[in-house]
Amino acid sequence: MVVLTPTIIFFNTLLVTSFMFIVSMSNPQGNFESATAFSSNPILNMSRLKESIASVNWSEYFEVNKDNSKTNVVSDPLYVVNETYLDPYGPNVQFILFTRNNPPYNLKMNAHENFVSSYFNYSRPTKIIIHGFISSIKETVFQMSKNAYLETGDYNVIGMDWSVLCEFEYFTAMRGAQIAGAYLGAFINYLVEEGVDLENIHVIGHSLGAHVAAMGADKIKAGKIHRITGLDPAGPGYNDVPAIYRLDPSDAKLVDVIHTNMRLLSLSQPQGHLDFYPNGGRFQPGCPELSDIWTVTNSLECNHGRAYYYFAETIRNKRAFKSYRCAHVDVQKLDMCIIPTEVYMGQEDTYEVLDCSKNLLKVDRAIQTNDWQMAVEKCLLSNVSWYGLYFLKTKAVPPYSFS
Ligand SMILES: *[C@@H]1O[C@H](CO)[C@@H](O)[C@H](O)[C@H]1NC(C)=O
Ligand SMILES: *[C@@H]1O[C@H](CO)[C@@H](O)[C@H](O)[C@H]1NC(C)=O
Ligand SMILES: *[C@@H]1O[C@H](CO)[C@@H](O)[C@H](O)[C@H]1NC(C)=O
Ligand SMILES: *[C@@H]1O[C@H](CO)[C@@H](O)[C@H](O)[C@H]1NC(C)=O
Ligand SMILES: *[C@@H]1O[C@H](CO)[C@@H](O)[C@H](O)[C@H]1NC(C)=O
Question: Could you give the CA distance from residue 199 to residue 261 in angstroms, rounded to a whole number?
Answer without folding.
Answer: 30
